[in-house]
Amino acid sequence: MEVKKVYENILSNFNSDIILRPNSDAAVIKGDSLELIKKIPDHKIALIVTDPPYHSTKKKNITGDTSFKTDEDFLNWMEQLANEWKRVLKYNGSIYCFCSSQMEYKLINRFSKQFNILSTITWTKPNKPGYDGWHNKMKKENLRQWYPSSERIIFMTPKYGDNLFNSYFGAQLRSWRKMLRVTAHGLTEITGEYGKVNHGGAVSNWEAGRNIPSREQYQKIVKALSDADKKGIIDFPDYEDIIRPFNVDKTMAYTDVWDFENVRQHRGKHPAEKPVDLLENAIKASSYPGDIILDTFSGSGATAEASLHLKRKSISMEIEDKWFKESAERLKSVSLNLF
């Protein structure tokens, strides 16, 4: 089914909810995301980029940040969300989840039950040249630990299969090969993908989940296995539906330290707003044009704006009435500029 129909089918499940459509490619839904996400069918979302309450920061102006009495309460709630994230993500989908440095390791412990943790990105939050943030003016002598001037972004993909890295594609490739009685060595010979380090070749690396094939390599795999599939029993999916997208180049932030400037304080700024260029970096790397991007804690709508810039469709969930309305207005102006 084409993405447009999938997108509209997803949104049709929210008819009883308060929803705004700033344009045909963006939808903002008001409510508790843990309840709302249950209305999204399985495996329809390509990418989740989201910024939940941090809990450790205890900011009263951020909904949910002071809602949990203990870390365990917060982590149990996040684990419920993670279970839903995995359910709605496509098999080759990815997640970027913002969190504080204090909660990072505890969240990773919970997330690793269902997800492969591929990276933890440190966002250094530099200020725009000439602008001194408030923390630069604070009295340093009052500190009793290192000041948390950075934030973390946990980058992860769903776990599937029983291979080394629980890779969905790795498990599928091994299943196809065994079904067609093609050896790993034989597939390596046919595709010519020997690998430079592992003498078993790229095929064994893909099946273990150590790596993912390029588009050209996947075409070779499909061609080789299709030739062996005399009865046509396997319907090989398109590259975009099985291979996890990860597309970076030298113009992008490609290490696990990101230096995107913080959003400068301004009247009406969301207290946890993330810079659009940072979000674009994640979305461009880990999705394809036309994909559906989900943000379960959308705030002022920055993730949706970044998605629109990159020609993706977005679904935003926001519990606060103020930000629900303001983000819809923001996206309306973005769409007028773009289209």
Automatic annotation (TrEMBL):
One example of a Gene Ontology biological process annotation: DNA restriction-modification system
Entry's EC annotation: 2.1.1.-
Example of a GO MF term: DNA binding
Residues annotated as signal peptide: none
Family: Belongs to the N(4)/N(6)-methyltransferase family.
Name of the protein described by the UniProt record: Methyltransferase
Gene3D superfamilies assigned: lambda repressor-like DNA-binding domains, Vaccinia Virus protein VP39
Keywords: Methyltransferase, Restriction system, Transferase
